[in-house]
Amino acid sequence: MGTRITQLQMFLMLFIAQTGTVFISFQSPLIQIAGTESWFVFFCLGLLFLPHIWLFERFFQYFVWSKPICIMYAGYWFFICVSFTGKNVYTLNVWAFPETPVLLVIVLMGSVMLAVVLSKPSTAVNLGVILIPLIVIFILFVSMAVNDLIWTNLLPVGQLSLGEFRKAVQPAQLPFVGIELYLLFRLMQPEKVGFRRLFLYFAIWFAFFLYMLIFPLAYFSLKEFELFPDPIIYLLRSQEVTFVERLDLFFIYIWLAWSIVTISLYAFAVIRLLGLMGILYYKKIAVWMTVLFIIATYFVVNKNAVQFNAKVIPYIHGIFGVALPAAVIVFNKIKGRTNAGKGISS
């Protein structure tokens, strides 16, 4: 029996998967390159998100999930899970759990991820619902800094050279990571997705990331971004509230839940690919993949690996989020091959 989701579930899953990986870390590398014009670089690049996802909707049936394609995307999403979990655990080790063994944190996150993928598909599909109030609370916490913002930090604009702009495009691409999941999730959603729905999702995605970029840019001086990789956490740490001693630690727990749901969604996507390849009895494979995930993640929880992955991911995204989908769609369009009638097994 095929897994079916609603449009709301599809867009919520996509939003969680795209935001839970990079929303606290994409700012610093972008600002270090583009300075005050960082928001403008992302604004220009972010406008391409709408035609990007519209093209996916328009031609998703021509993106045929053949076995080689499934294997490549399974490997890519596994790498995303490992690299971003490594980044998350490294940050948690610095900010929240310095005395907790790194391996224990990875095992706990991997165990939750495994439990999700071994349960009914509806578990992963509906998991993002619990994050909605937490996301709202998080945005409200960030907004508390509005009175301390220096809006002149957003100026001047228009002084970047073409070379600097191209260089800034690389970290500005990080919020696009995960957009290719639409091609998979769309197979589980039988109804046509109208342009209004796509525009609404684009508007929410665009506003969220622009908000997460403008606030730290207007709050800190440019030199301060050379000192810390996660400006959102530092911004929250500087806020004084009466109901909790350190707001940044309160946010860390929200972010931890966000991260676990995110990697669970990527793992869910990999399991769906196994179904497309005709592997229906996937539980033993899921267990071994979790063991491999724990081992691989353990070796990337360090500063050098985190920095290396942050530089490499935009290039890999260019392949799996842009070049490969375009090539597969064009090839199958010419050949007249489609995904029509192809479901995703539970």
Automatic annotation (TrEMBL):
Q: Name one GO biological process term.
A: spore germination
What coarse category fits the chief subcellular location reported for this protein? membrane
Looking at the UniProt entry, the stretches that span the membrane are 12-33, 39-57, 69-90, 102-118, 125-146, 168-187, 199-220, 250-273, 285-301, 313-332
State a GO cellular component annotated for this protein: membrane
Topology in the membrane?
Answer: Multi-pass membrane protein
Keywords assigned: Germination, Membrane, Transmembrane, Transmembrane helix, Transport
Subcellular location(s) of the protein: Membrane
Family statement drawn from the similarity comment of this UniProt entry: Belongs to the amino acid-polyamine-organocation (APC) superfamily. Spore germination protein (SGP) (TC 2.A.3.9) family.
List the protein's name: Spore germination protein
